[in-house]
Amino acid sequence: MLSGxxxxxxxxxxxxxxxxxxxxxxxxxxxxxxxxxxxxxxVLDPSTKAGLERxxxxxxTKTTGQxxxxxxxxxxxxxxxxxxxxxGRHWQIGQKEKNTGALLIVAPxxxxxxxxxxxxxxxxxxxxxxxxxxxxxxxxxxxxNDVAGGxxxxxxxxxxxxxxxxxxxxSRAKQRPDDQPSLVDFLALAFFLFIFFMIVRSVARQxxxxxxxxxxxxxxxxxxxxxxxxxxxxxxxxxxxxxxxPGSGGGGFSGGGGSFGGGGASGSW
Length: 269
Prior knowledge:
By secondary structure, the chain is an alpha/beta fold. It is built from seven helices and five strands; from the N terminus they run αβαβαββααααβ. Helix 2 (46-63) links the parallel strand 1 (37-39) and strand 2 (66-71). Helix 1 crosses helix 7 (183-211) and helix 5 (147-163) packs across helix 6. The relative contact order is 0.19.
């Protein structure tokens, strides 16, 4: 009975954590999508911003993919990974049918940068390629206090990776040593394994209760415990419709209805 109670408690805690994440997501505020470059942090001079706008517009015309650059005043207490994922779905960058959208996100106050990738670009702009671009092209320039140069070079490399030299970029990314799993990764894996073990153990004991001669289920036994999985939160993006978010698509430019699933890479300087 004790193990079953612990399983129920663990599943309840996990469910509350997921609810907290969802509430935090809705509590985030996002800058208005006024164009292909949203410089909320004010780190780009007018000529650099105009040049990036032209380059990104040309990229969209030639490929139908959408790439948007955004600099943020603050991550509002969340991680750049969570903020980037939510922002991509909020703006819905990329065509709805193809999900070919990407974001280059820079948070200068937290010294964080991320390439957030839509589903349709995950085959070319892989996590490894995104990491390579961040570490080799963007961060070295940021560390030299050349934020505009880092963003410009990052944009160039992203465009090449998804439209020109995708196989070459993936080959270069494979030559890098794989990142070692972090302690957080191990703890997360251990947590999910613990939950899975407790569920299986509880269900197995319940099954033994049914199997006893002449008896139905034991009193106090519970049925299977269902735990919501984060990946089931509308991977198609339908539950994150842009129409439910005020202020999206302003300034004559808007996303095309693309969806994001958390692909990409991050870095800090």
